[in-house]
Design brief:
- The structure holds 3 protein chains of 3 kinds.
- Chain A contains 6 helices and no strands.
- By secondary structure, chain A is an all-alpha fold.
- Chain A is extended, with a radius of gyration of 23 Å.
- In chain A, about 15% of the residues are buried.
- Chain B is an alpha+beta fold.
- In chain B, strand 2 and strand 3 form a beta hairpin.
- In chain B, helix 6 crosses helix 7.
- Chain C is mostly helical.
- The mean pLDDT of chain C is about 85.
- In chain C, helix 7 packs antiparallel against helix 9 and helix 12 packs antiparallel against helix 13.
- Chain C has one domain.
- Classes of the chains: A mainly alpha, B alpha+beta, C mainly alpha.
- At the A-C interface, helix 2, helix 3 and helix 6 of A face helix 6 and helix 7 of C.
Chain lengths: ~170, ~220, ~400
Amino acid sequence: MPPFFIITGIVTLLGAAFAMSLRNLVHCALAMAVAFSGIAALYLQLDAQFVGFAEILVYVGAIAILIVFAILLTRSGEAPEKSVLTSGWMAGIAVSAMVFTMLGWAVLNSSAIPKETPPAPVATVKNVGDALMTKFVLPLEIIGLVLTAAMIGAVIIALKEDSQKSKSEDGGQQ
Amino acid sequence: MLGEQIIKGMAVTARNFFGSYVSKERLTTVQYPEEHLAQKENTRQFPFLVYDGDNWEKGLRCVACQICEKECPPKCIYIVKSKDKKPDYKGQPQIYPLTFDIDISVCMSCQICVEVCPFESIKMDTKFELSTDDRFGGLLLTKDKLAKPNSYYQEMHPHDAAESDAVIAAEKAKAEAKAKATAEAKIKAETEAKAKAAAVAATAPIAAPAPTTQPPAAK
Amino acid sequence: MFDKFDQIFVTALHWLVSFLPEGLRPFVSALICIAFVMSVFPGVFALTTVLERKILGRIQNRYGPNRVGIPFTKIRLCGFGQFIPDGIKSLTKEDIVPRAADKVVHFLAPVVMLVPVLLAYAVLPFGKHMTITDYDAGLLFFFAVGGAVEVSVFMAGWSSRNKYSLLGAMRAIAQMVSYEIPLILSAVTVVMVVGSLNLSEIVKHQNNYTFGIAHWHVFTPWGLVGFILFFIASLAESNRTPFDLPEAESEIIAGYFTEYSGFKFALFFLGEYLGMFAIIGLGITLFLGGWTSPVSFLTWIPSYLWFLSKLMTIVFVFIWIRGTLPRLRMDQLMNFAWKFMLPLALINILVAGIWHYMAADWPRWLVCSAIIFGAYAILGRGLMQNQNFGKRIYRYAE
């Protein structure tokens, strides 16, 4: 329904705009979380339930928290001295608007976009699961492998500091 | 096994929970304004005056000796003696206190007044719910508020009351014995005097001389 | 006839909505459902606060609150009116915002906690045909909104500009994130066996009876272990003892709640308890059969009464555990989650797979129980071995 779409779109865009332009970095992270929820709402309007809920679960529940922890642990939460926008921001907006219109016109008039939209595929959880296990099983396994490697790497980095420290302690104690 | 002790702990708390509905030892709370814990016999709060019999004015044991007033460390007792006398439990006329005030906002419950009283007349009460909103007059107990019957004392401190009663009974018995002894001696003296007078009357007109030996013998 | 009692709320809703034109019906129906949830569950919350104090009191050999019944009268009702003065007290306390606090975020944190928690009630099946929104991916929705609670905890801790609040918030988030993994993994076993993320479907799967006993998931080996893991993880998610380090009064004053007073604190408190009920409701749906009755001759009792009684039973067990166990320290908590619960949850998934593919006969009971028991014993022994009560080793800061 157009009214809901417009509202959701505005909320998402405002969230993204604030995420760029607010002074306080933690406020920016929270605005980004709002933008993520807006995107999840858009997915839900398109009847893609699995993707929408997974977006909230992963992005808002985990990635926003991760960004916030990173901000806090690196102590860059102080407000910047001068304005976040550089002096030539008007020229920047003009250039980006021109590039956007040119690319948009080129894409819309190309042959890659079909004239009528195809019917939306049924995206129930069962279909997503079937697709993941049959057609897309290789990307799934590769992603799993990459995530496992990342986790093992994180554990090794944390572990090495501990074992080095405790080894030096024990040596000193004796 | 992991978790075994947790289950045991939960069994203990479950026993407490269900037992609190059935047995008294699992729910030891005394709900204060409605229920009271039984007070021990040695409890002491503020003093009161004991009276014998039914009439508190006539039976008041206090004879206004003012020993407790002098011994009281914070000086919370104020006594004014009376001008006339009334008979006490031994039958002797004693003065009594016209005014006997104890300021319980000052009293520190040290019990020294009870220890020094020779007449078993001031004892320690056990009531503590004495709150009042009258800051100055409400905590000044006068003679009428302080006087309580001996039966009350026996109820509050049975052991001490029995001892006190024994002391008083002993004193009374001693006094009675003394009174009896003096009465007997008096009667004896009277009969001897009568006999001596009769003897004097009998022998007076016949023999005039040698009266010097008589008075020592009559004594 | 008993069916009528069972479906009384559904028929009442349809009847109320039938007075309106076609266009307005979804909205009004949604509003009525929202009103239902907002009136029933805060009522259960109020009851639970009094029940908790009374049950804890009885466990500790004393009475709980037993004076306040109906206010302004002498009717005592065994103290169950205590929530009225408690509520009025939190509403009338002064709302103090620290001068250096971030006002917008400080204000929004209780709201951001409460809204996702209330949203989670939309997918729970309270009775037969009594789910408010029956999403295809209902379970995923529940976990998604559960994740949003962590953002609010961070907002509360950081916006107070208070070292202790921030520290408490970090610890609370670490705890919530660590325990979310065994929570979700133990729910995954149910999804594997049932084959759907739809919560009503999961309940229907448990609605068969053999020899008069229902096919609840908790009566299977993987279901029992899954339920215990889910139970412990839900204790940790709701910050209840023994996992209430972030908010315990003797620990870090009140953790991330420190700078909140009056109504905002009441909202946090409400949000925490409502979150507890929601996650217990999910546990009941996944493992304890939702609104079904355990024995086949008691199915005449209405389904929502079964749900409510199961909810209150598990709340009683939560309170019982609170009265029994001491608090876990932060490192003990994290050890427990990562070194015991996570491996056990993964092995549980393996066992659920074996269960699903073996024939429905006694061997699969034996095999699954043996694997689970062995894993539990080994992991438990591993966890208990780390108690090195030796000479203390000092680690100095560099």
